[in-house]
Amino acid sequence: MTKPLLTVAGLQAWYGESHVLHGVDLHVNEGEMICILGRNGMGKTTTLRTIMGILRKRTGQIIFDGRDMMGVPLHRTAQAGLGFVPEERGIFATLTVQENLLLPPVVAPGGMSIDEIYTLFPNLAERRSSPGTKLSGGEQQMLAMARILRTGAKCLLLDEPTEGLAPVIIQRIGEVLVTLKERGMTVILVEQNFRFASRVADRFYVMDHGKMVSEFPVQELPARMDMLNQVLGV
Question: What is the model's pTM?
Fold first, then answer.
C-alpha cells in the first residue's frame, strides 16, 4: 500500500461551545476519490472545513503530503495543495468567468491551463465574458471547480456539487469527476446522492453525529443498501 496523501485521525472540532466533530478518522490515497455520505447536520461539511483550516477550534491530527497541518494557517493550507470548493460556490459576481478563473494564484505545477479548463467545461468557454451574476447554478458550480483545478492543487475537497442542480448538469459534473480521476486527481467528495457518488467514488465513509460509522469500497455498495437507507433516511 502506498502512503495516504491525506490522513485524518481523532479529529474533533467546535463551533463556539458546540462540539460538532467527535473523533473523525479517514484517509485518502493519491489518485483516489472518496465520498463522505450522511444526512444534513451530521458533520460532513464541517469535516471539510476543519481539514482545510477554516474552522480553527480543533484537535487531532491532519497529515497532508507528509506534513502536519494542524498549526498551519489557512492560506498556507491552500499553498500546500488542498483546494476547497464550498457548497455556496463563492463566485465573484461582478467578475467575468475568465476573471474568476484567473484570480486564484497557481500554487504548484500541474494545474490545468485555461484552454484545458474550457475543453473540460464547454459551458464556461461560451460564457467566458459573462459576469458571475449571469451564470446559472450549474455554471457557477462548474466555475467553482474549474477555479481550483487551475491552481495545481493536489487534493480537491468538494462539498455537495450536485445540490439543487438539473439532472443534465449533474450528469456533466459526474463526467468531469471521471475525467479528473483519469488524470490522477485526489478528491474528497461530500454528497447525499449516493447513486451519483457510486459512479465516481472508490470508497465511501458514512458519517453520523460527528463521526464515521462505516467505511467500505464501492464494490460493497449493493450489500450496504439496507444500512445506508437506515442511516441516510432515504
Answer: 0.93
